[in-house]
Design goal:
Blueprint lengths: L4 E2 L10 E2 L21 E6 L18 E7 L7 E10 L3 E6 H4 L16 E5 L5 E13 L2 E11 L8 H4 L9 H4 L3 E5 L28 E5 L2 E4 L21 E5 L6 E2 L2 E7 L15 E3 L6 E4 L2 E3 L13 E2 L6 E3 L27 E8 L5 E8 L2 H6 L8 E2 L3 E3 L7 E2 L9 E4 L14 E3 L1
Parallel strand pairs: 5-10, 6-9, 19-25, 20-24
Antiparallel strand pairs: 1-2, 3-15, 4-5, 4-8, 6-10, 7-8, 7-11, 8-9, 11-12, 13-15, 13-26, 14-23, 16-27, 17-18, 17-21, 20-25, 21-22, 26-27
């Protein structure tokens, strides 16, 4: 039996939930992408850190990578942290306290001069809480110096109520998160999701800081706090000296499902020979970091760019399935299955072959085909229960949210993720945008 994992991404309001499993016939993935260079980080969809542990659970459709974390300025006071969830739907490196405790990383202060704490809320009610600390972060052959990161606290006390929101779903362990942390390499340079980070900065002119976001604490009493943009938990890619304007996720195609697949996270767009944007790729400019997906004659996109309202749609490697509103009347799974409540997933009687069109703010449009498998079959077939890459895993998005193109979309598709505010090569629009 594989337990339910849930990762819901704050920056893009994505929903993802998953259990392991496989389809009736297990097939091998095609050859992994061939990418070499200092701007390449190996990634793997292999079930995660608990998959091989006695009594552990497999995390399906999740890409993992490693990072070397050093005390600022040191090349010897370092640790390598494996099994970080690669997430293009959020921003910032978040690592469990136990993984970096030996480094004694320096604290990062809020604008008041007190140590800053960061809160990340997820749509499913779970959250991550912990102090902001500074580290040198090495990914592949690239290094982001003096990067603010979130160190996920092992404590469950003193967490402000507007961070936990009354929930007990603190994902503060490897068992609960299914990873040793999150490598957020999304569209934004910092994780303050209000007005591109400026709303969390004291220069915003706001009378009070937004929440949940950053806090300062006196004992167990924690209050929202302003923090300068430079001290906010950062997208490490944006702090590289070069290859810092985006990432490319390359994973091989998967026919049905596979035990595991290996691929690459490539840094930079148009900055090296291995990260050029091909002429066949379509660039999608965005509103509020979302585009529009047209599915079953219905449009899911931002309707008011000033307020960022509307059921926006997005591409997100941190979501472990394709999640979309059930406008096609696909039968959902039961709450009572051999592996528990699967009502957030689709369970068609036979594989559904579907398509949807993505449309950018500039009118660019591209249609993508996808399949939806019966999730209960995927999760309970003993012949394929060790498979980590599931090409047909899909589920229901909550009301008011659009189309979440999660990790199954990435199989066999090179996805370009351009970071907001970074310099782009001539001929390409300013970020943020996606291309594939």
């Amino acid at each position: 039996m594989r337990r339910l994992f849930a990762i819901v991404l704050l920056a893009s309001l994505g929903f993802a939930a998953g259990c392991g499993g496989g389809v009736t016939s297990s097939t091998a993935a095609s050859s992994p992408p061939s990418s070499n260079g200092s701007n390449v980080l190996a990634i793997s969809v292999d079930g995660g850190p608990t998959a091989s542990q006695p009594g552990g659970s497999l995390y399906p459709d999740a890409a993992f990578a490693s990072a070397t974390i050093c005390a600022p300025g040191s090349t010897s006071n370092c640790v390598t942290v494996n099994n970080l969830l690669v997430d293009t739907g959020s921003t910032g490196l978040r690592i469990f306290q136990s993984e970096v405790a030996s480094l004694s990383l320096p604290t990062v202060n809020a604008s008041s001069g007190s140590p800053a704490y960061d809160c990340v809320n997820f749509v499913d009610g779970s959250y991550l809480w912990g102090p902001v600390q500074q580290a040198d972060v090495q990914l592949g052959g690239e290094t982001a110096a003096k990067t603010p990161i979130q160190v996920i606290s092992s404590s469950t006390t003193g967490i402000p109520s507007n961070c936990s929101n009354g929930s007990t779903l603190n994902e503060n362990s490897q068992e609960l998160l299914g990873a040793n942390g999150i490598l957020g390499v999304g569209l934004e340079p910092t994780d303050c999701f209000y007005a591109g980070g400026s709303a969390c900065d004291p220069a915003s002119g706001l009378s009070s800081p937004p929440s949940p976001a950053y806090y300062t604490c006196s004992g167990s009493n924690c209050k929202p706090a302003f923090i300068s943009t430079a001290n906010q938990v950062a997208n490490p890619v944006a702090l590289f000296p070069a290859d810092n304007n985006g990432v490319i996720v390359e994973l091989p195609s998967v026919s049905g499902n596979a035990a595991s697949v290996s691929g690459s996270l490539i840094f930079g767009i148009g900055t090296a020979s291995n990260n050029q944007l091909p002429g066949s790729a379509t660039v999608f400019t965005l509103a509020c970091d979302n585009f529009t997906t047209i599915f079953d004659s219905q449009s899911f996109g931002i309707t008011n760019a000033m307020t960022c309202s509307g059921p926006g749609s997005f591409i997100d490697s941190g979501s472990n399935g394709l999640f979309f509103p059930n406008v096609s009347d696909i039968p959902p799974c039961s709450r009572n299955t051999p592996v528990g409540d699967l009502s957030s997933f689709y369970c068609p009687s036979s594989t559904e072959s579907l398509s949807a069109a993505n449309e950018g703010e500039d009118g660019s449009k591209k249609t993508s085909s996808f399949s939806v498998e019966n999730a209960e079959t995927l999760f309970t077939n003993p012949a394929t229960e060790s498979d980590a890459a599931l090409g047909g895993l899909a589920g229901l998005n909550p009301t008011g949210v659009g189309f979440d193109w999660g990790l199954p979309f990435f199989f066999g598709v090179h996805v370009y993720n351009a970071i907001d505010g970074q310099t782009m090569p001539s001929g390409l629009p300013a970020g943020p945008w996606w291309a594939y």
